[in-house]
Design goal:
The structure holds 2 protein chains of 2 kinds. Chain A is an alpha/beta fold. Chain A has 8 helices and 18 strands. A 7-stranded parallel sheet of chain A has the order 7-11-6-1-4-5-12, sandwiched between helices. Chain A is elongated and about 60 Å long. By secondary structure, chain B is an alpha/beta fold. Chain B has one domain: HUPs (Rossmann fold, 3-Layer(aba) Sandwich). In chain B, a hairpin with a 4-residue loop joins strand 3 and strand 4. Chain B is globular and about 65 Å long. Classes of the chains: A alpha/beta, B alpha/beta.
Amino acid sequence: MSVLVYTESEQGKFKKTALEVASYAKAVADQMGTTVTAITFNAEDTSILGNHGVDKVLKVSNAQLETFNAKSYANVIAQAANNEASKVVIVSSSADSKYLAPLLAIDLNAGFASNVVEAPSSASPFTVKRTAFTNKAFNLTTINTDVKLVAVSKNAFGVKENSSSATTEDFSPSIPENGVKVESVDKVSGKVTIADAEIVVSGGRGLKGPENWGMIEELADVLGAATACSKPVSDLGWRPHSEHVGQTGKPVASNLYIAIGISGAIQHLAGINASKVKVVINTDPEAPFFKAADYGIVGDAFEVVPKLIEKLKAFKAQQ
Amino acid sequence: MKILVCISHVPDTTSKINFAEGDTKFDTNGVQFVINPNDEFGLTRAMWFKEKQGASVHVVNVGGPETEPTLRKALAIGADGAIRVNTAATDGFQVAKQLAKVVQDGGYDLVIAGRESIDYNGGMVPGMLAGLLNANFVNNCISLEVEGTNATASREIDGGKETVSTSLPLVIGGQKGLVEESDLRIPNMRGIMMARQKPLNVLEPVDANSETSSVKFEKPAPRGAVKLVDADNVEELVNLLHNEAKVI
């Protein structure tokens, strides 16, 4: 009956989203008067899960599951859910979790709600609040099936401390045949990704050319942030497509989003709206981004950004 | 190769989002509907397979008669035929069930859908459809090549991309990258005229229960006005972000 949560790890280490979904699972388990079981794939040290409300860890260690594969992972999670007789299964909104979740829903005959931002408002009927219309609205949704699957939005519920004594069990599932084979993974190492970043620094056409991105990167470095860009910038080839954030690009749900030389087209705002605090720096006081931002500076990025870097460096030095 | 492209009929991005009937329904009053952007990238990639590899391309929507102009637009862009499953879309599972029946009856090898629709953002129909069909599935797909029954695709992952090899039958959750924005096609007059002659078949739905139900909608609380900081006093912004917003 326990709530099952899929806690993602990378190279054996848990992602922040894993701790967030564990915290969410704990809230659901408390509402339902049950416990939390986490399933991990090739994670080394799972003790940290015990700080976030997990009572039992199912450890899967299998070389065939070294590389993420949606169908295999979904199938293994479904086996765990059946073993635990789980009525609620929780996953994150990472690219991998979004990939496996609909397959898992079919495996479990589970009704599925994605982009969920709060703990259930009621456990019976099981009702959750999710974002819709690309963050322009919320939708209260009831899941009517016996088994329920919830994908929690990033950075919405938050990581909560909940000390428990988590027991660990090895779990040896059967691995299904798989028709999708990973040939290569091309990943920038050592850089903060937009998906994981607490802070994102984003540049737009106002920066006039790719040669001016040095200050964006320096600002990102000072803040430990990821760099991103607007759609025109990626369409012009100034920056790689992987940095494009907005409705047709990557979604951003960071704590702080700094937009430099971005006017704030509605498609851009839709993609970054889930960020908690937004800062805009733009020469045009009429730019729509000023209506969506928390803090703004009307000014030339080429003057403001170097000053901001200098002040932030001084601030960091004091910390 | 027989390709089916799933088309969501969604409000244009610039639409005002309002709700009616006690906030239980999306208010379509004055809203212009378009092909879901993620689907349009997939449709344009399908046109490439049609022109270069002789594939046939059909488009499908699950919805009422009001979605037909959107299907006609897809025909004007170049799809060979359209199918509308005549039932209101109530949740991702119910839509996937309807689509699975269309795919099975039509013998499609490749199904291209968008990674998510920009209205309900569920992001579940392509994967559920693949699960129901027991077909291969690639989500967040940013490139796709097919040779015979073998396919090579890449997908966007957090922080990079991944290249996979797979085979037909295949379901794709597509997005920008399948083709570029500049490759998207605006229907020309000839295309629009030809679209009128192309078949648009209306099919009756199969029995499928929704697994979820929408209770009501809410709009986010209106946000406060932006706090402006003088360009000569950048230090103030650092202070605000640290002491007030507490994000640095």
